[in-house]
UniProtKB/TrEMBL annotation:
Database matches in InterPro entries: 4NH2But_aminotransferase_bac, Aminotrans_3, Aminotrans_3_PPA_site, Class-III_PLP-dep_AT, PyrdxlP-dep_Trfase, PyrdxlP-dep_Trfase_major, PyrdxlP-dep_Trfase_small
Protein family per UniProt: Belongs to the class-III pyridoxal-phosphate-dependent aminotransferase family.
One BP annotation, GO: gamma-aminobutyric acid metabolic process
Pathway annotation: Amino-acid degradation; 4-aminobutanoate degradation
The protein's Enzyme Commission number: 2.6.1.19, 2.6.1.22
Key words of the record: Aminotransferase, Pyridoxal phosphate, Transferase
One MF annotation (Gene Ontology) recorded for this entry: pyridoxal phosphate binding
Annotated catalysed reactions: 4-aminobutanoate + 2-oxoglutarate = succinate semialdehyde + L-glutamate; (S)-3-amino-2-methylpropanoate + 2-oxoglutarate = 2-methyl-3-oxopropanoate + L-glutamate
The protein's required cofactors: pyridoxal 5'-phosphate
Species in which this protein is naturally found: Anaerovirgula multivorans
The keyword Kinase belongs to this UniProt entry's keyword annotation: no
Name used for this protein in its record: (S)-3-amino-2-methylpropionate transaminase
């Protein structure tokens, strides 16, 4: 039976509403049953929502339920769902050129986007870019470029890292389930180093930080690994799937220094943290980094598949013609969408909006931390925030069980939250940077009630 459960009105601002007895409603259930019959089981779904339309911070499902979205496709829609500028750019492009393949015939959009990214990338020196389709492809190509440039095979990644689901990217990822389990053997010549997980620091704690994690890396390169064998080190400035763990600037700068001293290519993965999410165009800027290479994707295309590797010209030019790229890499549609996204970030004050949303999230989440014993840590940069749930604040024992209860309650009230963390005990927040103050407040009110009901 269908009935009105909850409808929220925020002045003239579109808001969440649930009109079915439960989510999913009957129309969505029909398609979920077909999904179970025809779509491979291994393709996961975080929510049972079957989307029909989406705009700004809202998603409407087939049954007419409207959800306030704090996930935006896992950080794919920083400027909001269905931004008019992106839609217009794609519509105009599809009428003239869909995809001739850049390797066969060049087109303006690819070159324009490469120029924009090269100019906007942080750090010193002249830069170039190559375009691909997904974040994982960008990582794979960055590794190829680094190996070609250095003539060395070894690749270092961090604990708690996530770099994608393709073979090399999966190998560099930390969390075994669901990303790596049963898919081995993994790529050879890859090594793990500690991340700066300050909340769970094994080197004396964040209050007495002596950069033990960095010293561990230095010792590894002296006793266990030879720098002469290492081509690249790849790091997320804010670890995403690992639990939204901001890596301290001192740690990142230390890794960069080690790389420079040992002819190791310093790769910064900005796939989730880039394009205004951290309050700067790239999170690297806030840390004062000088990356050799950067991997980019997710919000770059505003929902249209596209990714990039951007880096120093000398390194980017190491592969010969034909050695990197792909048939659909840097499609005309993706390029025009990306150019529109970059313009929106610049002209609609998106960086300031990220900072404002982040401050609002931080205030509300810290208030909840004071209230609830189960919230062990609140952390984030810009509008990339998370809370880590524990059974006890002193022991910090992970509490993943509560996440399902919280997200299910919130979904039934029309708010989408998603989890993260190597212990699956982190709730992460990736609100679109066009979300209003009223919408943020509404979402946090639902969250607070969800935690209260889940204890």
């Amino acid at each position: 039976m269908e009935c009105v459960v909850e409808k929220v009105i925020i002045g003239e601002i579109p808001a969440r509403k649930i009109i079915t007895k439960r989510v999913p409603g009957n129309k969505s259930l029909e398609w979920i049953q077909k999904r179970q019959q025809y779509v491979a089981k291994g393709v996961g779904n975080i929510t049972p929502v079957v989307a029909k339309t989406a705009k700004g911070a809202l998603i409407e499902d087939l049954d007419g339920n409207v959800f306030l979205d704090f996930a935006v496709g896992i950080g794919m829609q920083n400027i909001g769902h269905g931004h008019d500028a992106v839609i217009k750019a794609v519509q105009e492009q599809v009428e003239s050129l869909v995809h001739p393949c850049f390797h066969v015939t060049m087109y303006e959009g690819y070159i324009k986007l490469a120029e924009e990214l090269a100019k906007k990338a942080p750090g010193t020196g002249e830069k170039k870019a190559m375009l691909a389709n997904s974040g994982a492809e960008a990582v794979e190509n960055a590794i190829k470029i680094a190996r070609k440039y250095t003539g060395k095979p070894g690749i270092i990644s961090l604990e708690c890292a996530f770099h994608g689901r393709t073979y090399m990217a999966m190998t560099l990822t930390s969390k075994v389930k669901p990303y790596k389990n049963g898919f081995g053997p993994y790529a050879s010549e890859t090594y793990k180093i500690p991340s700066a997980y300050c909340y769970r620091c094994p080197y004396g704690g964040a209050e007495n930080c002596n950069m033990g994690c960095l010293e561990k890396v230095k010792n590894l390169l002296k006793g266990e690994l030879s720098p002469e064998n290492i081509a690249a080190l790849i790091v997320e400035p804010i670890q995403g799937e690992g639990g939204f763990i901001p890596q301290p600037s001192a740690f990142l700068k230390g890794l960069e220094k080690i790389c420079k001293e040992n002819n190791i290519v310093f790769i910064v993965d900005e796939i989730q943290s880039g394009f205004a999410r951290a309050g700067t165009l790239f999170a690297s800027e806030g840390c004062g980094l000088d990356p050799d290479l950067m991997t980019l994707s997710k919000s770059l295309g505003g929902g249209i598949p596209i990714s990039a590797v951007v880096g120093k010209t000398e390194i980017m030019d190491a592969p010969a013609a034909g050695e990197i790229g792909g048939t659909y890499g840097g499609s005309p549609l993706g390029c025009e969408a990306a150019l529109a996204v970059l313009k929106v970030i610049e002209t609609e004050n998106i960086l300031a909006k990220a900072e404002s949303i982040g401050k609002q999230l931080k205030k509300r989440l810290q208030s909840m931390q004071d209230r609830f014993e189960v919230i062990g840590d609140v952390r984030g940069v810009g509008a990339m925030y998370a809370i880590e749930f524990v059974k006890n604040k002193k022991t910090k024992e992970p509490y993943p069980e509560i996440i399902k209860r919280i997200t299910e309650y919130a979904l039934q009230k029309g708010v989408i939250f998603i989890n993260a963390g190597i212990y699956s005990n982190v709730l992460r927040f990736l609100p679109p940077l066009v979300m209003t103050e009223e919408q943020v407040e509404d979402g946090m009110n639902v969250l607070e009630k969800a935690i209260e009901r889940s204890l």
